[in-house]
Amino acid sequence: MKNLQSIKERTGLGTGKEWKKWLGISLLFVCSFFGGRLAAQLMDTGSLLPASTEATGSWGLSFQEEGKAPVGNASVSYLKDFDAYYVKETEEKVIYLTFDCGFENGNTPAILDALKKHQAPATFFIVGNFMETSPDLVKRMIEEGHTVGNHTYHHPNMSKMGSMEEFSKELKSLEELYEKTVGQPMSTYYRPPQGIYSESNLKMAKELGYQTIFWSLAYVDWNQDSQPTKEEAFDKLLGRIHPGAVVLLHNTSSTNGQILDELLSKWEEMGYKFRPLGDLTGGQ
What we know:
This protein has helices spanning 2-11, 17-42, 76-80, 108-118, 128-133, 135-143, 164-182, 199-207, 230-239, 254-269, 277-281, and strands at 56-58, 61-62, 71-72, 84-85, 94-101, 122-126, 147-150, 189-190, 196-198, 211-213, 245-250, 273-274. Helix 4 links the parallel strand 5 (94-101) and strand 6 (122-126). Helix 4 packs parallel to helix 10 and helix 9 crosses helix 10 (254-269). It contains eleven helices and twelve strands. Strands 5, 6, 7, 11 and 12 form a five-stranded parallel beta sheet that branches. A three-stranded parallel beta sheet has the order 4-10-8. By secondary structure, the chain is of the alpha/beta class. The protein is globular and about 45 Å long.
């Protein structure tokens, strides 16, 4: 009480409404400050929320020890019940490369060149726009031994789709265009747009025969107007690599196009090998 009285005396706010107003403004400032810091962390996919037992919301990670797999929103065992994955629990130095492809802006050929040079298999999660505008690149992915996964046709927030009819339409529309264009069925790997999902989505994807693929390593590479430097990219991608990593990169990133050859070399120097997703999921 003496401390409280001392504060009142120093501020000159007395004990009435002015004191309550000052206290309310102070609390609002504190909440805004820490809320802003949390929001900044949420924008960095390497510094996200701690794990929970039930999957919901936006996919997030918590890195707790360098060289070790991060903790995800949901555990490996929980996700496995829905044929969903984000990392392989192993001490073997293996990496699963994945790329999200929203559209083509000239960086994909360099990415494919680097993968071919290192004989590194990858999975490209494409949307309808990419399939429509870049069929030759999709065909090249297939010819060079990569897998093409389903990132939905329109890239919507899938967690808002409560019915199987809505949910399946987004996946099947892309399936049909893919098969019509390349002459073979699409793989049954699914990545939720923006990592937004719900338990209901996981159930529906499994019912449709899909395996949902999240990630255990990514960095802020999607903003074309603010691309990370080579040093910033290496800081995240080398410092946080771990055995069994599912790496998420974006094909639209000019930084990725420029550094991928060197990045793959550095990972190889660290003793890592590149494996297809089937090694993780036990499937294709």
